[in-house]
């Protein structure tokens, strides 16, 4: 054999060389290179995302502790593109040993496996802000937290070990802090502050609209302070955790549950692991799946699990409970709108609970019309999910698409085909759910599920009918006023003609015609019908008072 051929055969296969280059990637290292997935894709948006994640955490913590939230947000410009943000709340505080993991470890949280309405879901938000801060300034995040006046406040300076996704404690000490309980976060980051529709200012204003029980104290980089005072002292109803509904289960998830359950029989497994499944329903599912109820879960094969899944789908199971949700309610939605948006008419709608993929959800909608809202522009759309404003990716959201596919012409607005309508209107859509189907980790748009878009359209149509009735009434009264004004302008000429025909004095005839003219004023009243909580808006004529009225 030639020497060249022997050398070629002795060479190690290339696959071994490639194998040496392969290694595990930590989630922190992945998001270091893909921070745009978390919403930190430009300086302006980064500032918003950092504030948003900190404020959302504070609101969730306060509501879980049943404390009326009072949150302070301060932004300080350190240089052209360097900012310090300080967010302080009056929440329950954080236990000392949990502080490093919550702020400096990605995918660490308490809500991912919990089926109840909450702002946070993935355990990424605030730690992603810390990661971005570290990447752009190299400075640690500063945390001060206290759980009780009987315990000291703990101060940490934290960074993230991106290769291992672990917190790095740069400093830890006991701190003097006047608050009895709460948390304070200080972040330095590369950012840009610009006011506008997708700014921190707009996010906080919309947060105040959709959370009327919250007080926000905001100081912008120009040292201008804005206080969004709460409109109600009533906390939202507390959401309770539920088990997954069987209609939302998939084959792989079902097999995992069967593998790890502590239940001894298939019937007890179904009753223990799922909501709305009692012993009778579990037995019926087993019958429809042609499986014995006393089968051990550990002995269920893949084919048996597939039969069980078909058995679930062929069994009538009542919808999941809805005490896991905490909708705003029509009254508080209106209060929030009235507080921040100056309009002449408000209407709200709240749909009954519905379900997608076994997850319960509620759609709420509202409209504000007229007043200080611009007339010759597209309607202003405010989108919310679990009380959190969605400011980006409007075109990719199921809420925007539902608004565009709704016919607004019968409700008094201009619209060209399937587009956003024009008119002096603010349209609000809110989705409350145990698991909001966001299209990406940045949580800015809702996926286009048929069950969700149907409910959004029905809520919009309910608001539209109220809006249309008001607009038609207003138009009718305006027309009547216009006719009255036109008649008034011709009174002198009519008086001249009658004076010439009858020989009466023109002044007397003019006085009589003016007394005949009842020029109405518009008065807007809010009345409440009996046996109904819905407020009806009515416009009517008010006849002006006249001294010594005479019949002419």
Summarize the structure.
The protein has 552 residues and is an alpha+beta fold. The chain has 15 helices and 16 strands. Helix 9 packs across helix 10, helix 10 (279-288) packs across helix 11 and helix 14 packs antiparallel against helix 15 (506-516).
Which architecture of the largest domain would the CATH scheme give at its second level?
A: 2-Layer Sandwich
Share in β-strands: 15-25%
Shape type: globular
Radius of gyration: 32 Å
SSE-based structural type? alpha+beta
Residue-averaged pLDDT: 84
Compute the number of helices.
Answer: 15
Span between N and C termini?
Answer: 130 Å
Uncertain runs with pLDDT below 50, 5 residues or more?
522-552
Fourth-level CATH superfamily of the largest domain: Histidine kinase-like ATPase, C-terminal domain
Please indicate the count of domains. Answer: 4
How many beta-strand runs?
Answer: 16
At CATH level 3, the topology of the largest domain is: Heat Shock Protein 90
Helix content: 25-40%
CATH class of the largest domain, please? Alpha Beta
Main β-sheet: number of strands, strand sense, barrel status? 8 strands, mixed
Sheet with most strands: strand arrangement: 5-4-3-6-2-1-7-8
Describe this structure in words.
By secondary structure, the protein is α+β, with helices and mostly antiparallel strands. The protein has four domains: 27-228, Histidine kinase-like ATPase, C-terminal domain (Heat Shock Protein 90, 2-Layer Sandwich), CATH 3.30.565.10; 246-313, Helicase, Ruva Protein, domain 3 (Orthogonal Bundle); 330-466, 2-Layer Sandwich (Ribosomal Protein S5, domain 2); 470-542, no CATH class. The chain has helices at 3-10, 14-20, 27-33, 43-64, 99-104, 125-137, 200-210, 251-260, 266-273, 279-288, 302-313, 330-340, 398-405, 450-502, 506-516; strands at residues 70-79, 82-89, 141-146, 153-161, 166-175, 182-190, 215-219, 225-228, 345-350, 354-356, 359-369, 380-385, 388-390, 425-433, 521-528, 535-542. The strands form three sheets. The chain has an eight-stranded mixed beta sheet with strand order 5-4-3-6-2-1-7-8. Strands 9, 10, 11, 12, 13 and 14 form a six-stranded mixed beta sheet that branches. β1 (70-79) and β2 (82-89) form a beta hairpin. α13 packs across α14. The N and C termini lie far apart (130 Å).
